[in-house]
Amino acid sequence: MNSLRIALTELRRITAGRLAKLVIVALVLVPTLYAGLYLYANHDPYAHFDELPAALVVEDTGATTTEGEEIDAGRDVADKLLDSGDFDWTETSAAEAETGVQEGDYYFALRIPEGFSRTLTGAERLDPKQAQIQVITNDANSYLSTTIATNVTDKVRDAIASEVSEQAAASFLLGISDLRSGLVKAADGAAKLEKGAGALRDGAGKLATGAGDLETGLNTIEGKVTDLPAKTRELATGARKVADANGEIAATGQRAATAVDDAVAAYESNRADLDARLEAQGLDEQQRAEVLAIYDRGSAPLDRVDQRVGDVSGQLDQLATGADQVADGNEQLADAMPDLVAGISKAADGAGDLRTGATQLRDGADKLTTGAGDLKKGLQDGAEQAPATNEELRDRIASTIADPVAIESVSEAKASSYGAGLAPFFLALGAWIGGYVLFLLVRPISTRALAANQTPIRVALGGWLTPALIGAAQMVVVLVVVGLAVDITPVNWLGTLGFLLLTSATFIAIVHMLNALLGAPGQFLGLVLMVVQLVTAGGTFPWQTIPEPLHGLHHILPMSYAVDGLRQLMYGGLSGRVVADALVLAAFLVGALLLTSVGARRQRVWTPKRVRPEIVL
């Protein structure tokens, strides 16, 4: 009796009868029922989120930016959520939303409070605050609903942050553009200021030179007019004496003119008297005329003297008047001369002050020229450092600032859905459960083979082959159902099937070994081992996330390698790791068969405990 005959004998035993055959079929379908149904139910749950009822509350009433633009961020967010169709949104009031979440009508609620838009524009008013979005959840509805709601709000927050950042960046860039224009204009103004300051410096230098020359000239004049008040006073005194003398001379001339006038009058009077006397003497008219003609010869010199004396008297009067005016002018000059000298002195001092001020102005203008030049250069440098942008470029820069990183996903191996991501774990778990339930029907050790005195290794192989064949059927059925019915298609069909067969054979060998060595306790230990591997295999989360004390179990238990190998084959991963995983499972398989042979050897010896075991399944 070889191992194959031992296996066939056991197979005929467990398939004897119609009901027994149905049991075998049921056992073949156990992994399919477990893994297939679970993966079918969880194939793509994200595709049905649009059926999850969620409440949306919008209390925001909008706001006005500093530029006068009307925004309604709360309404915009609500419209995007309603249009997205990600969830079965219902817009309602805050009270109804809270009640609905409490009573399970909604899985969660999203509330956009009043002042949401105004808070978003707070940075423009130098009053920055974080805008709030309230999420109302109830884990009694579903724990995952809280996680889903958190993900939704995170996406909404990121979208709003991106939009607000883009608007802020656009305003900032526009400000930089305006600043650059202002700097360019300021630089031009500084250039003009530099030129004007240079002209002012040159003018101030000339003014200082002229003021110095004026000061020198006035000092010279001041030195020469020091005695001028005394001399003008002497001149005024002399002029007054001259005027007085001229007045006396004019009076004398006036008296002389009066005397001449009196002589002329007497001459005229004497002629009439002479004519009367001549007539009294008896002279006729002709005779009197001849005598008067002789008398009249004296009138011509007298007339000439009268005329000359009158002329001289008039000239003397004019001379006296002019001398008097000269005297008055000299007196006024003498009176004004001290003030003139003092004014010249003050003018000289003022010219000195002007020279000093002009020198200071020149120095200040020189510094102003230098400063204006530095200002011009600084403004030009600042304008060059401020980028020149147009509206299109500013929009692109603002968009980049708001969303600086674009994620390019490059997948070396990718699961097609959520269910596909879980498939390696549940296929491996199904293989273990499938092998475990087989030993509820299959006997781990053939007593007939032991009675025939077969070698332990042959007995071990014979006891393993029967469940291994059924396990192979289990794996074929579960892979076909998962691949075709559930639509989780492996990248490598044949490789996946071969690896599943190896996994099933290994797990069956381990459960076989536990039953052969320990009997009923071994069957229980197989269940415990399955539970431990559920935790440590890293089927749902990376194994590094489990508590550190369990890390060692991950490396020494076979399901870890079964899950890893199936991932590589189903998603198209690293073939080198598949080989390593297969070698580890093969080592578990060989080791389990060797230990089973040890159990077969022990069962060749009958003991009281074996005759009457303490625990019977």
TrEMBL record:
Taxonomy, superkingdom: Bacteria
GO molecular function, one term: ABC-type transporter activity
Keywords: Membrane, Transmembrane, Transmembrane helix
Record's subcellular location: Membrane
Protein's membrane topology: Multi-pass membrane protein
Domain spans labelled ABC-2 type transporter transmembrane: 24-161, 398-596
InterPro entries: ABC2_TM (IPR013525), Phage_infect_YhgE_C (IPR017501), Phage_infect_YhgE_N (IPR017500), T7SS_ABC-Transporter (IPR051328), xxxLxxG_rpt (IPR023908)
Secretion signal, residue range per the UniProt entry: none
Main subcellular location of this protein, as a coarse class: membrane
GO cellular component, one term: membrane
Transmembrane regions: 20-41, 418-442, 463-486, 492-512, 524-543, 578-600
Name of the protein in its database record: Putative membrane protein
Species of origin: Nocardioides albus
Lineage: Bacteria, Bacillati, Actinomycetota, Actinomycetes, Propionibacteriales
